[in-house]
Amino acid sequence: MSQTQTHHAYWDEQQLTPLIDALVARGWYAGETFLDVGLCQDLHAELTRLEARQQLQEAAIGRGDERTLRRDIRGDAIHWLDRESLAQRRYLALMAELQQQINIALYLGLFEFEAHFAQYPPGAFYRKHYDSFRGRANRIVSTVLYLNPDWPSDGGGEMALYDEHDSEREVARVVPRAGTFVCFLSDRIPHEVLPTRLPRTSIAGWFRRNASLGGRVDPAR
Ligand SMILES: O=C(O)CCC(=O)C(=O)O
Ligand SMILES: [Fe+2]
């Protein structure tokens, strides 16, 4: 490999350039058929097994002492990725390479990636929120990969993204169909999950930079 060539093991330039450009220009990116269908199927099958074995936990909001279950804000059940399957390891390898490429292009100093499977049962939603707060940002770039093999037009459960300067202005509505991948700056882009009519599956993940809060290292979760 010559020094002027960049070599990516998984991603090619045609996929990464639009993602990086969109992150810089407007703070978010959404791409259909961004990820391999076979990998999405394997991840979806794993989530189905985890659910059957009751290995999903109801998701909380807040952190530390302030963690609470609030079904009126957030209704999903989750399982943190822990590299326990080949499919997880493949997905995490893809994200590790994406992290590297974002760092090269944007100097964000992304340091690690954490992610969980999520399942929204019928009727569930996640009200409009930011994934981190300015000045206390530990989560820098948010990601979502959808795993649902089919999604009817009346299925609901879209993710709505809002303008970074006007949190009332919707800028995109993303259908949670398998292979679609979204990423955005965690402290800039308000977003929400609209009520779903069908069980809705995804992997939500965050590229982090370790931030020290008052001398303590910010806890991971
Ligand atoms: O599943 C989605 O579309 C977004 C989930 C989300 O916003 C989150 O888990 O913070
Ligand atoms: Fe979020």
TrEMBL record:
InterPro entries: HIF_prolyl_hydroxylases (IPR051559), Oxoglu/Fe-dep_dioxygenase_dom (IPR005123), Pro_4_hyd_alph (IPR006620), Pro_4_hyd_alph_FE2OG_OXY (IPR044862). Residues 106-209 form the Fe2OG dioxygenase domain. Its cofactor is L-ascorbate. Pfam families: 2OG-FeII_Oxy_3. Transmembrane segments: none annotated. Keywords: Dioxygenase, Iron, Metal-binding, Oxidoreductase, Vitamin C. It comes from the Bacteria. This is 2OG-Fe(II) oxygenase.
